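Sample intake sheet
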Amino acid sequence: MPTLNPLAAPPVVGCRRRLLLQAGAGLLAGAGRAGGAAAAAGPLVEVWKSPSCGCCGDWITHMRAHGFRIRVHDTGNTAVRARVGFSAALGSCHTALVGGYALEGHVPAREVLRLLKERPAAIGLAVPGMPVGSPGMDGPAYGGRRDPYDVLLVAAGGGTRVYRSYR
């Protein structure tokens, strides 16, 4: 089953979307060439968040530390979350797009890399809420506290299954 594209847009902008996806695929293909400047650049993650959210900034720092390139949109994430097909029940403080998948909340970079390698048929990954101890929610203010949480794989239609548990 092919991967569902969370970037689905109305037919009016389909041509533009196709061009953007082709350009992105070309950049990622070039990243595999030895010696190229793109070889050091990881996948691009586009993040939608509130301009004042500190934990979103900490999650972005976590993603950069794991080799991802980041483009930030400080416009909030409610509309993007709905557009990609994630329910409000899966909601968190930021929504991101990477490699044809959507990410909701404080998803660890490790699971994003696994998602991009395995390429399951899914909309993407979600960590609902803001669990303490997840990337971006793990700073000194939390005193080393780590709450258990699950990273959910979100299927078309909104069904979920546990992709990885953190305990």
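Comment: Residues 127 and 151 are 5 Å apart (CA to CA). The first helix runs from residue 14 to 30.
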